[in-house]
Amino acid sequence: MLVPLSSAVSAEKDVHPSVTSRLKRLIDIVGALVGLTITGLILLPIAIAIQLDNPGPLFYSQIRCGLNGQTFRIWKFRSMIADADRLKHLVHNQAKGNIFKNKNDPRITKVGRFLRKTSLDELPQFWNVLKGDMSLVGTRPPTVDEVMKYERHHYQRLLVKPGITGEWQANGRSKVEDFEDIVKMDISYQEKWSILYDLQLIFKTVLVVLNKNGAY
């Protein structure tokens, strides 16, 4: 499935160099293999904790939009109650624009809150990186319904691969609650991109996660 980009925007932009960089892809593959190894080592205790807290699927998956609007299925450890998506309309959105956030979302389980605080729920996304749907570093992967509401300037976010981390994750995480701020950060990432900058964002993300800054 392809969510169509604005033809005017896509026509104005050349292919972003990060998309064709072989070194970036090599780093993604190596990083994904390391990440999946770590995931495998802690899979059992996470699975047990999730089942004891709220029986149901171990993984949560959702269709997201990646490079040029191409859709893919993203994977995470489940941090909410089963069938949480069906109850989304009952939860107040505290964010502004085309994102959904609620600091005290009642659908999040006790174990799920810990997984989110430590970003352990994101580990299965290394599979998406290995497949090539995502990169270690990129933009936040939006949902299909978010993209369908995009205005012209928002489409530039889709000109690079989405990432497990990126500008906004390293410099704010859940503290950033305005979609336009995320767009600015994502575009800033595209403008500043280099292999060295990717490595800096990865290092900074590790520090942010270890300090548990800005996540909920």
Describe the protein in words:
- This protein has one domain.
- It is mainly α and 216 residues long.
- It has helices spanning 7-12, 17-20, 22-53, 110-117, 125-131, 144-147, 167-170, 179-192, 195-210, and strands at residues 59-65, 71-77, 135-137, 163-165.
- Strands 1-2 form a two-stranded antiparallel sheet.
- Mean pLDDT is 88; it is low at 6-12.
Secondary structure layout plus pairing:
Blueprint: H1 7-12, H2 17-20, H3 22-53, E1 59-65, E2 71-77, H4 110-117, H5 125-131, E3 135-137, H6 144-147, E4 163-165, H7 167-170, H8 179-192, H9 195-210
Parallel strand pairs: 3-4
Antiparallel strand pairs: 1-2
A few lines on this structure:
The chain is mainly alpha-helical and 216 residues long. Helix content is 44%, strand content 9%.
Key features of this structure:
single chain; 216 residues; mainly alpha; two-stranded antiparallel sheet; 4 strands
